[in-house]
Structure formats: C-alpha cells, structure tokens
Amino acid sequence: MKIVVLVKQVPDSSLDRTLRSDDFTVDRESASNVINEIDENAIEAALALVEEHGGDVTLLTVGPDHATESIRKALSMGPDAAIHVVDDAIAGSCAVTTSKVLAAALANREYDLVLCGAESTDGGVQVMAQMLGARLGVAALSGARKITVDGANVTVERQTDDGFQTLAAATPAIVSVWDSANTPRYPSLKGIMAAKRKPVETLSLSDLGLSADEVGASAATSAVVSAEPRPPRAAGQRVTDEGEGGVALAQFLASEKFV
Amino acid sequence: MTEVFVVAAGANKLTYEMLTLARSLGEPSAVVLGAPGTAASIKDSLAEYGAAKVYAAEHADLDAYLVAPKAEALAALISEKSPAAVLLPSSQEGKEIAGRVAVALDNGLLTDVSALEADGTATQAVFAGATVVKSKVTKGIPLVTVKANSLTPQAAPAAAELVEVPVAVSDAAKLVSITDQVVEPKGDRPDLAEANIVVSGGRGVGSAEQFSVIEEFADLLGAAVGASRAATDSGFYPHKFQVGQTGTTVSPQLYLAAGISGAIQHRAGMQTSKTIVAVNKDDGAPIFDIADFGVVGDLFKVLPQAGDEIRKSRQ
Ligand SMILES: Cc1cc2nc3c(=O)[nH]c(=O)nc-3n(C[C@H](O)[C@H](O)[C@H](O)COP(=O)(O)OP(=O)(O)OC[C@H]3O[C@@H](n4cnc5c(N)ncnc54)[C@H](O)[C@@H]3O)c2cc1C
Ligand SMILES: Nc1ncnc2c1ncn2[C@@H]1O[C@H](COP(=O)(O)O)[C@@H](O)[C@H]1O
Q: How do B110-116 and B122-126 pair as beta strands?
C-alpha cells in the first residue's frame, strides 16, 4: 500500500504567534516552527497501516525552505521519503490556492491513500481533504477518529458533534484525521539517524506545471485587511482555600446570580 | 433587495443567528440541503427569523453520501441565482461544503467568522483567539462559515416562500457513502456548545470515576459538562465533550474550570465566556490569569463544599 501524508510546518501553537505587519500573512520567519501537531497523528496512522498491510509512506509538504527541518523530524518517526514543494511564488497563498499546489503535486502520483490532518493550527480552515477530493475527483473521508483498510476498501469513523458516522469508499482515497485517532510515536535514536539519509525530493512550481500567477499572494482568494491583538482579559478576584474556599465560591456564584 | 443565501443548519440557534446576520446584508433566502421533506419541516422557524424564500434542494442522496452532493447542489444554485453572499454554519460539515464550493466556483472562503459587514468585511479570531482579524474574500462573493454564538438571533417574520430546486447528483459526488450514523447518548444535560453554564474538569480530576464530582456540580447549576484534552485523552471523559482548539468552542455566561491548567489550546475554546471561574491547587496555573474568580485549592474539597452551600441556600 502506498500512502502519502500531507505535513504542514506551522508556528508553534504553544508560543506567541504573530501576523506580519506588512501583508498580515502568518509570520513564519521569526516564529519557532514545528510540524502541525495533528499531522503527526496522520503520520502515525500511515505507519500503523503500513505495518499492518505492508507498503511505504511518503511525506508531502508545501512550504518555505526552512520546512526541511520539520520534514526531517517527521521522517524520523519512520516514513520512507518526502517531497518538498518550495517556490518563492507560493508565499502568501490562501487555503484555496494551497490546495491547487497540493493537488498538482498529487495528480501524477500513484497512491492508495493520502492522509492529512483535520486542521492546521495556524488559521487552518479544516477543509484540505475535501478541497483536494474535489480537485482530484478522489474520495475524501474527513474527520477520522478511526481508519480501517480492507483490500481496496477504506472505512472511517468520522467524529461528529454528537457521536460518529461510518464512511466507506474505494481506494484511492484521501482521509483527514483528528488527534483522537491515535497517539503519535516518538522518534527513536535510530529513526533520527536514518532520517538524515532518507530521500527528500524538491519540486518547484514549474515541475508541477503551475505558473507563478496561479498561486501566491496575487492569486489568493481572500486576504486579511487588518489585525489586532484581542484585548487581554483582566484577572479578577482570587481566594486561597483555607477551609472556606467552597463557601467563597458559592457566594461568588450567588452574587453573580448563577444560583 | 439583494439576495443572501443562508444554508440552514436545521431549526436551531445557529440558523437563526445566520438569518439575523443575513438581514443586515440583504434579503435572506434559506437553502435547505437534505432528504426530501426537510425544508417543509423547518420552514416555519425559518420564516420567523426572516427567510423571504426557502430553497428546498432535496434529494435522498444528499444524506446518503458525504458532503460532496450537498456542495454540488449548492454550487449549482449559487451559479444560477448569483446571491450577494453565502453564509454556512461553521460546523465540520458546513466548512467542508463551503470548501468544495470554493474549489468548484474558484471563489474565496472564510471560516469561523463571527461578524460580517455589508461590504463583505469579516471578523475572525486566529491563533487560538489571541488575534482578531478583519478579512475579505477577494475572489468571487463572500462565502463564509459563521461560528455559533456570534450574535443574538432576532425574530423578524417573513414569507418563507418554498421554492423546489431540482437536484441532480453526479457520480463523482457519490464516492463516499455514509453507511451508519451513531448518536452517542448525551444524557439530560444541556448541549455543550449552547449551554449557558459549562462546568469543565481537567487532568486534575484524576480519573473517570472522580468525574462525578464535576457532573454533580454541573447538575446543581443546570450546566453542561466539558473536559480538557488531557482529561479526554486520559479516558476520564468522552472525547466529544472536549473544549478547546480541537474540541468544541464554547461561549457561555459562566465557564467553571476545575483541575485545568489553562493551556493556550484550551483557552482557545472558552476565553470568550462572559464569566470565568477557576479552581486549581496551583496558584501559578495560567487559567487564573483569565479568571474573574479563582479559588486556589483542592477541587475535591472546594466543589463539594460549594455544592453544600448552594443546596443550603435553596432550602
Ligand atoms: C494542536 C493542539 C491542540 C490541542 N487542543 C486542545 C483542546 O482542544 N482542548 C484542550 O483542553 N487542550 C488541547 N490541547 C492540549 C493542551 O495543550 C493541554 O495539554 C491541555 O489543555 C491540558 O489539560 P489540563 O489543563 O486538564 O491538564 P494539565 O495541564 O496537566 O493541568 C492539570 C491541572 O490540574 C491541577 N490540579 C491537579 N489536581 C488538582 C486538584 N485536586 N484540585 C485542583 N486542581 C488540581 C493542576 O494544578 C494543573 O494545573 C491541544 C494541544 C495541541 C498541541
Ligand atoms: N502547505 C501544506 N503542505 C502540506 N500539507 C498541508 C499544507 N496545508 C495544509 N496541509 C494539510 O492539510 C491539513 C489541514 O489543513 P488546513 O486546511 O490548513 O486546516 C493539515 O493538517 C495538513 O495535513
């Protein structure tokens, strides 16, 4: 089974993140960049499937030069190879144009499954799997908390607000996964060493048959026009429980008319 | 007046919010995508909140296959009627329909929008709510998904003229079948996303059995129960009750966090709550930075004592 996993490099969501002051795109240069966390769940799902059914796993990233760090890190979990689409003209792309680039990179490849994260942490729109499905004419099973492959059939438990749906399709298919799907493995020392030698193919826009004016800021279908930090919430009253903390809490709730 | 599409999420608050928002942009037309009979069953509620028309784009296949048929039907209707804007619910399904429509019509898309001005300027929170941005669709019409609890719905009765829309589902839209739909029991508590009060527990609750402390306190206040990811990951509470960036976003009148440290990803899902109360034994927990009222203490002492006190006051 051939699996491609889409991996995005994003600014670390546990640190302060900013938009650039000139064009309000995500500041990726001064940020501490990491693998989009849920993409590690997609990698884990791919590795588990290949362990069960045999096959290989290739990563696909569209991102700037420094995304190679995240690619090597992702490779250390166990995937076999990676493709890095990098081109200055891609900077400033919106989700719709990014899906155009990813679709072009997938179009001529052979795969049984494409796995991706359900959402990216840097303003992700949560719809990459469906946009790619629409572009490529391939089945898109989104929001998986469980994936099962049986021959050429793939079944997914799609997490919903009040339970789950069971989805079924024939391969090739695109599946997006939530963080509830699994717990990503930590890279082993051996994996980290091996990752250094794994093949990473670098592709430009022209390699994909796309021209610069089809992507990037100029072709973006939406734009941020202004940005402001949310006014911070002021911390309120605090009591330390010395035997009467619960009483104080009840009094506060009563004074605010919640009880 | 210009027509604005509202893709109905059912007869519920979010649909009424979207209709209310649409009225500030033009004349709302509700679009119902579903199995035959769906539009007729919710038409009266759509009328109450201002739908001048109700497009019934109905076909059995719309519920039998995942999102693609709905997106196809909506894209066709948009092409035919050229509305000034299209609003969809910011649910997983709503976003996915919008994403496919964006690709089909080569149109921009904005998700998780909390306000939309007549000129198409949308308000969104990014970076776990830390930054508020104004954005615009620069290609095509404003195609936006609206976040629940963004505004207060206002009734404004209108005709809700029912218009049948013929739907043809292509083979390309039938690649993913929905073979089963399981609603997991949610009990008698209010819906997490819509509740006025939410009481949440985190890793500090310690175990699934001990979550009863959270449930009991929630029931005393008539609240919904939420959980942090650490609590759902540890199996203390079902995943669908997770509050935060990768869970549900809540914005209740009161949010009470017990045994939750207040990681940025958790705050992303609750920091717009009107009043925030925290109970945590670590006085350095970041949750206290955003709490209106905090008790530094053991939740297993504080919550039961507060519960007794509340029960006493009700006698
Ligand atoms: C991409 C990404 C997405 C994420 N999405 C989410 C999300 O949607 N929702 C979410 O919640 N998290 C999310 N997280 C995880 C988040 O970073 C934190 O790990 C998580 O919120 C921590 O949960 P917690 O506060 O319950 O646990 P901890 O951080 O371990 O905090 C437990 C707290 O309980 C206190 N405590 C312990 N015992 C007691 C006691 N007896 N009485 C009172 N207090 C006690 C401790 O002092 C501590 O502050 C996400 C992370 C990433 C990277
Ligand atoms: N530039 C990119 N390169 C590779 N994968 C991406 C990229 N952007 C998005 N993805 C994938 O799409 C998923 C959903 O992203 P998003 O639609 O941005 O929320 C991510 O978790 C990734 O798996």
A: antiparallel
Stretch A89-94: mean pLDDT, rounded?
92
**Are B258 and A246 spatial neighbours (Cβ–Cβ below 8 Å)?**
no
CATH match of B197-314 with 3.40.50.1220: yes
Select from B96, B171, B308 the residue whose CB has the most chain A CBs within 10 Å, as the one to mutate to test that interface.
B96
Reported confidence tier of residue B75, pLDDT bands at 50, 70, 90: very high
**What are the extents of the domains in chain B?**
3-174, 197-314
Q: Of A95, A226, A258, which has the smallest distance from its Cβ to B109's Cβ?
A: A95
- Please state, in angstroms and rounded to a whole number, the distance separating the CA atoms of residues B176 and B171: 10
With 90 as the cut, is the pLDDT of residue B184 above it? no
- Rounded to whole angstroms, the Cα distance separating A158 from A142 reads 7
The SS3 call for residue A112 is coil
Which superfamily, per CATH, for B3-174? HUPs (3.40.50.620)
Collapsed DSSP state (helix, strand, coil) of residue B222:
coil
* C-beta separation of B196 from B254 below 8 A: yes
Q: Give strand ranges (E) for A193-235.
A: 200-203, 222-229
pLDDT tens, position by position, B101-146: 999 999 999 999 999 999 999 999 888 788 899 999 999 999 999 9
Q: What is the mean pLDDT of residues A199-217?
A: 96
Phi and psi for B188 in degrees, rounded to 5?
Answer: -95, 0
- Please give the C-alpha separations between residue A170 and each of A26, A69, A186, in angstroms, as whole numbers: 37, 34, 31
Identical topology for domains B3-174 and B197-314: yes
Q: Identify whether the C-beta of residue A97 lies closer than 8 Å to the C-beta of residue A216.
A: yes
CA-wise closest residue to B109 among B142, B63, B80: B142
> CA A217 to CA B154: how far, in whole Å?
38
Protein residue closest via CA to atom 1 of ligand 2: A62
- Chain A residues within 8 A of B288 when measuring between CB atoms: 235, 238
Q: How distant is the alpha carbon of residue B312 from its chain centre?
A: 36
Residue A226 is encoded by which pair of tokens? 């202004």
Cis previous bond, A172, omega within 30: yes
Q: Give the predicted TM-score (pTM) of the model.
A: 0.90
Going by pLDDT thresholds of 50, 70 and 90, the confidence category of residue B66 is: very high
How much is the mean pLDDT over chain B?
A: 95
Kindly state the tokens that stand for A161: 């607000």
The average confidence (pLDDT) of chain A is 94
Which residue of chain B comes nearest to A154, CA vs CA?
A: B176
Instruction: Tell me the CA–centroid distance for residue A203 and ligand 2, in Å.
Output: 17
Whether residue B188 is predicted with pLDDT greater than 90 in this model: the reply is no
> What average pLDDT score do residues A162-174 get?
95
Note which residues in 224-253 of chain B have CB less than 8 A from chain A. 229, 232-233, 239-240, 245-246, 248, 253
Which of A167, A228, A252 comes nearest B132 by C-beta? A228
| Alpha helix segments (H runs only) across A28-164 | 37-53, 67-75, 95-107, 128-136
Q: What is the CATH number of domain A2-219?
A: 3.40.50.620
Ligand 1 close to Cβ of residue B201 (< 6 A): no
Does an H or E element contain A142, and which? strand A139-150
B173 in Cβ contact with B68 (< 8 Å): yes
